[in-house]
């Protein structure tokens, strides 16, 4: 649950904000959303850590953040971002990049922010707070992620392929190609036997493990123009922040972008991350290595996103009424829009960059 709060102060003091944003961990009207309270403990720790004047990127100024660890009932109070006011751009909805002015420039700014945060951590500029508050536990991460079951995965993959063939107008033509879908259905189940090996590989490079925002989509940021016209950004919604693969953080940012961003600009964005990461004090990374980690992360993410069809059909029982994936019916049905858009992005990466080669290899 979230609230906008405007306040007056009995005693004025420098730096006080009258317009506040309040985020609660609990939602007693929606059991599914209430389950999201598990994301807030690290978000509370990050909010308090961000009060350090040397914090490397812009975040909403935190006035109070705490959580009861037995019930995970928590609250965060920050300044309110003035979306659409003065130099601040309006808030952009998730998976609506087709209405975004100059999308690639916005993603460049976001990628730069992610690299500066992770690089500052690797350089030791955040002190020992990261290790104390966000310890990296490889075995725990692998245990949580390596849970694909062969029979269930095949069922979901086949259902996804059938959904696309039934409603081909909802995806780019190359994703509705029967040959591609048959190849995808043949390759994807190979991941079951190799999943632990893949995740262990993705967590094997200490130079690529850092403090990261896991979901820096366009909707989890605010953008403004400096007096010189330069576009800059800050990040919000730090649920489940922690140490993770920087490749997963990059995909958490660009995964909701239009496929054209991945097709035309992915290598450029990886180069930008590498340069900003090093400039912030992080270790050097080879672009080929980072691209491989990103592709393998996307490959595994695609297998966990095969649950999209039922989620879409719950909100839009007959997708034939939609002209395409940009139809207004997806604008007003956020879950269906996000599930479809992320699925398109993942399958586009699978097709364009032949992600199945990692599973076909001996």
Tell me what portion of residues adopts beta-strand conformation.
5-15%
Instruction: Determine the N-to-C terminus distance.
Output: 48 Å
Share in helix: 40-55%
Q: Quaternary state, please?
A: single chain
Largest sheet: 4 strands, antiparallel
Low-confidence stretches: none
Helix count?
15
CATH architecture of the largest domain: Alpha-Beta Complex
Q: What's the count of strands?
A: 8
What is the helix/strand order? EEHHEEHHHHHHEEEEHHHHHHH
The tally of structural domains comes to: 2
Cα gyration radius (Å):
21 Å
Shape descriptor reads globular
Protein name: Aminoglycoside phosphotransferase domain-containing protein
InterPro entries: Kinase-like_dom_sf (IPR011009)
Report what the structure shows.
The protein is an alpha+beta fold and 362 residues long. It folds into two domains: 1-80, Phosphorylase Kinase, domain 1 (2-Layer Sandwich), CATH 3.30.200; 83-360, Aminoglycoside 3'-phosphotransferase, Chain: A, domain 2 (Alpha-Beta Complex). The chain is 47% helix and 12% strand. The chain has 15 helices and eight strands. A four-stranded antiparallel beta sheet has the order 1-2-4-3, covered by helices on one side. A two-stranded antiparallel ribbon has the order 5-8. Strand 6 and strand 7 form a beta hairpin. Helix 5 (138-145) runs antiparallel to helix 8, helix 9 (246-254) packs across helix 11 (287-304) and helix 11 packs across helix 14 (334-352). It is globular and about 70 Å long. It comes from Novosphingobium anseongense. InterPro entries: Kinase-like_dom_sf (IPR011009). This is Aminoglycoside phosphotransferase domain-containing protein.
């Amino acid at each position: 649950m979230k609230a906008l709060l405007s306040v007056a102060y009995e005693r004025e003091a420098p730096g006080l904000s009258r317009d506040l944003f309040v985020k609660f961990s609990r939602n007693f009207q929606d059991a599914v959303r209430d389950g999201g309270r598990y994301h807030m403990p690290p978000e509370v720790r990050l909010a308090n850590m961000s009060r350090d004047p040397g914090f490397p990127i812009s975040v909403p100024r935190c006035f109070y953040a705490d959580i009861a660890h037995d019930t995970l009932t928590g609250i965060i109070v920050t300044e309110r971002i003035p979306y659409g006011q003065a130099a601040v751009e309006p808030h952009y909805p998730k998976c609506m990049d087709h209405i975004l002015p100059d999308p690639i420039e916005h993603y460049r700014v976001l990628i730069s922010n992610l690299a500066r945060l992770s690089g500052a951590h690797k350089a030791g500029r955040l002190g020992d707070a990261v290790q104390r508050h966000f310890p990296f536990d490889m075995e725990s991460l692998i245990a949580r992620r390596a849970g694909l079951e062969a029979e269930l995965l095949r069922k979901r993959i086949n259902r996804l392929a059938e959904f696309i063939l039934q409603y081909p107008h909802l995806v780019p033509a190359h994703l509705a190609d029967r040959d591609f879908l048959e190849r995808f259905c043949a390759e994807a189940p190979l991941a079951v036997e190799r999943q632990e090996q893949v995740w262990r590989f993705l967590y094997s490079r200490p130079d690529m493990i850092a403090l990261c925002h896991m979901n820096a989509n366009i909707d989890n940021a605010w953008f403004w123009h400096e007096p010189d016209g330069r576009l800059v950004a800050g990040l919000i919604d730090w649920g489940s922040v922690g140490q993770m693969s920087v490749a997963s953080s990059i995909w958490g940012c660009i995964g909701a972008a239009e496929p054209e961003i991945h097709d035309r600009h992915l290598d450029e964005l990886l180069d930008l991350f590498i340069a900003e990461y090093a400039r912030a004090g992080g270790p050097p990374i080879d672009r080929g290595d980072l691209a491989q980690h990103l592709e393998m992360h996307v490959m595994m993410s695609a297998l966990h996103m095969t649950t999209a069809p039922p989620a879409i059909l719950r909100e839009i029982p007959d997708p034939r009424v939609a002209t395409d994936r940009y139809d207004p019916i997806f604008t007003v049905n956020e879950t269906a829009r996000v599930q479809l858009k992320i699925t398109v992005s993942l399958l586009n990466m699978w097709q364009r960059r032949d992600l199945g080669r990692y599973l076909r290899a001996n």
